[in-house]
Design brief:
By secondary structure, the chain is α/β, with parallel strands linked by helices. It has one domain. It has seven helices and twelve strands. It has a seven-stranded mixed beta sheet with strand order 3-2-1-4-8-9-12, with helices on both faces. The chain has a three-stranded antiparallel beta sheet with strand order 5-6-7. Strand 5 (141-143) and strand 6 form a beta hairpin. The longest helix has 17 residues, at 4-20.
């Protein structure tokens, strides 16, 4: 029961914040999965399923559609190369599967290569004087200071595509609606990057102190005994 309380509390915060958000663009940033050629030798390998992050973003998309209606503006930013690489391993057309989610949920799908692409979309993807970012969420690998879009894909336990906290100052704070809800569902973001995000944008970012685990039927949960959500 003690373990469930922080999970239920944060789920309530997500729901309340979403319900209170002003109209605007909901952006879900989706990183890529690891490859088994690097992970299979680890005691606790990552990403047994290619769709860990895609599926979590889909769950969140369904929530937004339920809470904000069928016309809510939802955009997915997806790290494409990670799914092209994983497709060779899994022998599936993963891009076609991701595109099918776009079609089913009537969302805008933008493929990106690096952190600069993400920042450029935040600043220029819509006319930000009229279309503000109401919700921004990250699903993917991360550490305390960085979103790691291709963690353990090109290089074992490292990455070549990222968004680092030192780059956040390039985001225009005017991109965001008043009261925008921002959160990272990755590991460790609350240990440093959340503070840097707020300093750069003026908007609080919910993040985790500790680790999260991606689930099949719900949004990611805390798995560190002393972990907590913070902004």
């Amino acid at each position: 029961m003690k373990r469930l309380l922080p999970i239920l509390f944060f789920a309530l915060l997500v729901r309340l914040a979403s319900a209170a958000a002003v109209p605007g663009e909901n952006i879900l940033l989706v990183g890529g999965p690891s490859l088994m050629q690097w992970e299979k030798y680890k005691a606790q390998p990552h990403d047994h399923w290619w769709a860990n992050f895609v599926h979590a973003a889909r769950i969140r998309t369904e929530q937004i559609r339920t809470e904000s209606g069928p016309n809510a503006m939802i955009t997915w930013l997806v790290y494409k190369q990670g799914y092209l690489d994983r497709a060779q391993q899994d022998k599936q057309d993963l891009i076609a599967l991701i595109n099918s989610v776009r079609d089913k949920f009537n969302l805008k799908l933008v493929y990106f290569q690096n952190g600069d692409d993400v920042i450029n979309y935040l600043n220029n993807g819509q006319p930000r004087d009229s279309v503000k970012v109401a919700d921004f969420e990250y699903f993917g690998h991360s550490n305390a200071k960085c979103f790691m879009f291709d963690y353990s894909s090109n290089i074992e336990s490292a990455c070549k595509s990222w968004l680092h906290e030192s780059e956040l100052k390039k985001i225009n704070s005017r991109d965001f609606a008043r009261g925008a809800f921002v959160k990272s569902w990755g590991c460790h973001t609350g240990e440093s990057m959340s503070k840097k995000w707020k300093a750069a944008t003026g908007i609080a970012m919910w993040g985790v102190i500790g680790k999260t685990q991606y689930m099949s039927e719900e949004l990611p949960i805390l798995i560190t005994k002393t972990g907590k959500w913070t902004n």
